[in-house]
Amino acid sequence: MPDKSSSSLDDFEATLKNGAVDLLNCIEVGNYSNAIQIIQELSDARHKSFYNEVGNLTRSLHNAIKEFKVDSVDVELTGTDEPENGSKITDASDRLNYVVEMTSNAANKTMDMVDSSVPVASELQKQAKELRKDWGRLIQRDLSPEEFRQLYKRIDVFLSYADDSATTLHTNLNTILLEQGYQDLTGQVITKVNSLIRDVEEKLVHLVAVAGRIDSISGIEHDLSLKEEDDTRGHGPAIKNDNNPEVLNSQDEVDDLLSSLGF
Amino acid sequence: MKILIVDDFSTMRRIIKNLLRDLGFTNTVEADDGTTALPILQAGTIDFLVTDWNMPGMTGIELLRAVRADDKLKTIPVLMVTAEAKRDQIISAAQAGVNGYVVKPFTAVALKEKIEKIFERIDAGK
């Protein structure tokens, strides 16, 4: 029974295999003292391999955690009480708050512009309708000279109002256009945060892989059953839901479902 | 006709408020989740409730259930306007007694259609 100093699980498995064959042979020929000896050696090898593996894992785990330098994880493991100023996650969270703020500002500004444009358009329409009525009578030669003079003045007033209104609407539309610049700025922020998330995920996967090896030598099994999702709290907008039959993709599908329920 | 609009995002409340105004409903009040909406409803002047689902504190589905469980409020028509589009969620909203369900993003036409349909039903039931 070779006493290998190698620590890998593979080596231990090979040792175990060979030992088992030797053990069987010894038992078959009735050499029990040798058999006991082999069992003892296998047990020692298992302990040795176990301790070596734990040593390796501790080192891997330490490295993985060192790589995974974020926020509370870092603070907790190094045991320092000083807050990590400008950690990536805090920064990302601030950046996302900025996106929320910026999209909200843009939406409000756009709605302000719509709110101030709607009455202008309505007034323009109202005045044009009234003028058109009298203009029609003019064409029909149905206007008295006094009414004609009134119309003459009103057209002048209307043209000046139309000019001013068009300027107002133009300015408002331009403001709305410029407000859409939020998409560029928030897009950049989201792209940055996205790459951070991928980075963190990669490191987490590494941590999980290390943890998985710990499970395999210690024989710990986890309950992998998925937690039931709680619909009450809501999930937010569904994204890329073409492949999920549980998520409806349009108002029409919702209407169909409701009508199938007797709505 | 006084309408209560419940949504945690002020921009969405504003959009709905403007659309309702275009439909001729000018008397609206706002709340940002179920917890703030309930006292307004219990004050007794609301004729119609438009609510989001996903909100901090009390959610829209919880608000709907609370309304239906309250003897004074249970007849108020409730329209859900929400991004929640899971089959099970729509079914549970229907079971909880929702009167209409509009998924975000929605159009002015869809909102108008659902509101009109709700009133048609109410009139037919009278």
UniProtKB/TrEMBL annotation, chain A:
It holds the Pfam family CheZ. Plays an important role in bacterial chemotaxis signal transduction pathway by accelerating the dephosphorylation of phosphorylated CheY (CheY-P). Residues 228-249 are annotated as: Disordered. Keywords: Chemotaxis, Cytoplasm, Flagellar rotation, Hydrolase, Protein phosphatase. InterPro entries: Chemotax_Pase_CheZ (IPR007439), CheZ_family_phosphatases (IPR050992). Its EC number is 3.1.3.-. Belongs to the CheZ family. Homodimer. It is an enzyme of class 3 (hydrolase). It is found in: Cytoplasm. This is Protein phosphatase CheZ. The keyword Hydrolase applies. SUPFAM superfamilies: Chemotaxis phosphatase CheZ (SSF75708).
